[in-house]
Write a structure and sequence with these properties.
Layout (H helix, E strand, L loop, with lengths): L2 E8 L2 E8 L1 H18 L12 H32 L8 E3 L14 E8 L15 E5 L3 H14 L2 E4 L8 E10 L11 E7 L5 H7 L7 E5 H4 L2 H10 L7 H4 L2 E13 L5 H7 L8 H35 L6 H9 L8 H27 L6 H15 L10 H11 L2 H23 L3 E5 L1 H14 L2
Parallel strand pairs: 5-11
Antiparallel strand pairs: 1-2, 2-4, 3-4, 6-10, 7-8, 7-10, 9-10
Length: about 450
């Protein structure tokens, strides 16, 4: 009968020794050998009539090794389950000398393994955590900008004969050329639609009075303001990080002139945007827009609070890891073994991910957080509606249900949806325990703060 012993070899790091008596593996080895004898198809012998000695000579060594290793594996896993040992990954073999295995001389064998133990830890008291809920100030300018955006989005484009103002929309064909306007063979070219005011202040006046077929030859640097120049360079298929791209010249050929007539602010427009909401006046319209802007920034503030919650849990849940075991395990992962340098470089990020996984498991288990199939179906429907714009879609239509049921059979989708819903519930659980202090902040300052934080963590 196999005997198993355990000893500590480091922080959260134990050695397990499995001693096999030959009676633990010999019966299964002899059974496997007989099974091979019945199935073996060897020239010169009838099936099932191959001499046992020949079978043992041909297949014995590999079968013997297989049965010994299967037996030690079965005994080890059974012991871990019986003792309820909470381990990382799987046991790693120590000093495995398979040359000691001799089919002609069965012995008692001892195999050694190392295991990494998951740490015991406590979750921090979130009610005592210092956190901030940012309240973004919604200004009249923000409302004005959104009103203008909606008027432009739903407005009508009217053709004009010539460029008359900076608000004109012009369709142009950009063709790479030299400074004299000679086209460069194989150079970049692209059709685009631009506002005249996207051009630099010096060059806007050059467009006044221009008609279809007219052109300007300009370098991108002198033609466009920096903000617009960046996306135009990318749109042309050039490298926006290459300073030489901005120095390139283009013939900018006018192909169409238009002016955007903004949508009039009236009850018909309000009803188009907010059907059935009884929005009748400009004041009510602006109030509705303000609500939407506030809701957007409240959502952003909640995401930022969740980020604070993540760091509170990660930074204040103290736990010890079996570093040497995990580094050895990490080295073996992937298609090719990692070098010691690669393991050291990856280890801080790896342990952070491991720590968050353990925290998540603890929160889920201690608070009985569950995800049921209906929630995953709801997630699939919401994802579908977001792809399609969401407007006027009823979730009880047959094709919607067909899509949902098809996604429920997609294992990868279900696993991803389960994880995302569970993570959201973990953050909702934690956020309910926080007692954040409210702090007013301007939208620009809030956005800059979030961007700097994201940059710091990438």
């Amino acid at each position: 009968m196999a005997t198993i012993s355990r000893s500590n070899i480091g922080k959260q790091h134990d050695k397990i020794s499995v001693k096999l008596d030959k009676t633990d593996y010999l019966p299964s080895f002899e059974k496997a050998l007989k099974e091979y004898g019945r199935k073996a198809n060897i020239p010169g012998f009838r099936k099932g009539m191959v001499p046992a000695g020949l079978i043992k000579k041909m297949y014995g060594p590999s079968l013997f090794t297989d049965e010994v290793l299967k037996t030690v594996d079965r005994e080890l896993i059974g012991w871990i389950q019986q003792e309820k040992v909470n381990i990382f990954a799987q046991p790693l073999p120590l000093e495995a000398d398979l040359q000691q295995l001799d089919v002609n001389n069965p012995l008692d064998y001892t195999f050694h393994f190392e295991i990494g133990l998951k740490p015991e830890f406590k979750l921090p008291d979130l009610a005592k955590a210092k956190t901030t809920r940012y309240v973004v100030t919604v200004t009249e300018e923000m409302i004005d900008n959104e009103v203008t955006r909606l008027q432009n989005r739903y407005g009508n484009m009217k053709d004009q004969e010539a460029v008359e103002s900076e608000e004109n929309v012009i369709n142009v064909n950009l063709v790479e050329a030299d400074a004299q306007g000679n086209i460069i063979e194989g150079g970049a070219s692209k059709e685009n639609s631009l506002l005249v005011k996207y051009f630099t202040e010096k060059k806007r006046s050059n467009w006044m009075g221009k008609k279809v077929g007219d052109q300007l030859t300009l370098s991108l640097k002198e033609a466009f303001e920096e903000k617009e120049r960046e996306w135009i360079i990318s749109d042309l298929g050039l490298d926006k990080t290459d300073p030489a791209a901005a120095e390139k010249y283009f013939n900018i050929i006018l192909t169409k002139v238009g002016i955007l007539e903004k949508k009039e602010l009236n009850e018909e427009f309000f009803n188009q945007l907010y059907p059935g909401k009884e929005v009748k006046t400009v004041e009510e319209f602006r109030s509705k827009i303000k609500e939407e802007i506030e809701a957007y920034w409240a959502g952003q503030a909640t995401n930022q609070l969740h980020d604070q919650l993540y760091h509170q849990l990660l930074d204040n849940a103290k736990m010890d890891f079996p570093d040497s075991f995990l580094k050895k395990w990490l080295k073996t992962q992937g298609e090719t073994p990692k070098t010691d340098e690669e393991v050291e470089a990856d280890f801080p990020k790896f342990t952070n991910q491991l720590k968050w996984t353990l925290i998540s498991e603890k929160v889920v288990n201690e608070n009985n957080i569950q995800v049921d199939p209906e929630e995953i179906r709801g997630f699939a429907k919401n994802q579908l509606f977001s792809y399609m714009g969401g407007a006027g879609l009823a979730d009880d239509q047959p094709w919607v249900n067909d899509y949902t049921e098809r996604m429920m059979k997609d294992r990868k989708f279900v696993e991803d949806a389960y994880h995302r819903i569970q993570t959201q519930k973990i953050f909702e659980w934690g956020a309910a325990l926080l007692k954040p202090a409210d702090k007013n902040i301007e939208a620009e300052a809030f956005t800059k703060m979030v961007e700097e934080h994201q940059h710091h963590h990438h």
